[in-house]
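Hi R.,

Here's the chain you asked about this morning:
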Amino acid sequence: MALPRRLERYLSRKSWRTKNSTRPTSSQRKTVPSTQRMSKQGYNAFLKCLKRQKLKAKPRRRKRRTTLLKLPAEIRNQIYAYALQEPNKIMVPPSLEIGPPDWVHASKQIRQESMKMWYHVNRFSVRIVDLDARVFHRWGQRIRDLGLGEKVYIRMGPSYNWRNLVEWCYAVWEDRDIEPLNTSARIEILVVVEGALGIAYDYRGSSWEQCENALENFRRVLSFYEPRWLDG
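And here is the predicted structure, written out as tokens:
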């Protein structure tokens, strides 16, 4: 039987020719000499050999791509720390609408791992206007819920609003307040605020009425030096 064209091409490769043989031309390939004829059984056996060679051939290995989530947890935390740390303090707006960059929401695992790291590696600054510390308390509560301790700086402007200061003292008396890392304010305002908050801290084991009476006595003393404390 005549060899099929596919087998004829295979036999005409360089590996099947000797060094002195030449590559057959297109006209020579059309006619198959009698010396290259084989039986049907030999042809089937030859095809089986070809299949065995293909099965034994090793598949090409694909290069593995290393992603962020495939790295060890220690290395991922170092990457998060370098990528999320800001060089300056982050100002906290009154709306508290602030958070890490958008890329942390790429997946659920990245968001869970990097969200707390953003609070841990950065410093935050809260501006207290007119001694209204509600923004400071809400942000401090968020920090405490994450178990990060004190990570807040305070900036206060000049103010003599005694009512807002009493509400701040009430938060300290209820243990809803956190201790800031540093407070920036005029020295006379800073002394009064620290004195009032210290009274509220000392009266935590007592009733609020007793603490309020102590704050009122402290206010009368302040009025001798600054009468504007009696206006608020």
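One quick note: The first helix runs from residue 5 to 11.

Cheers,
M.
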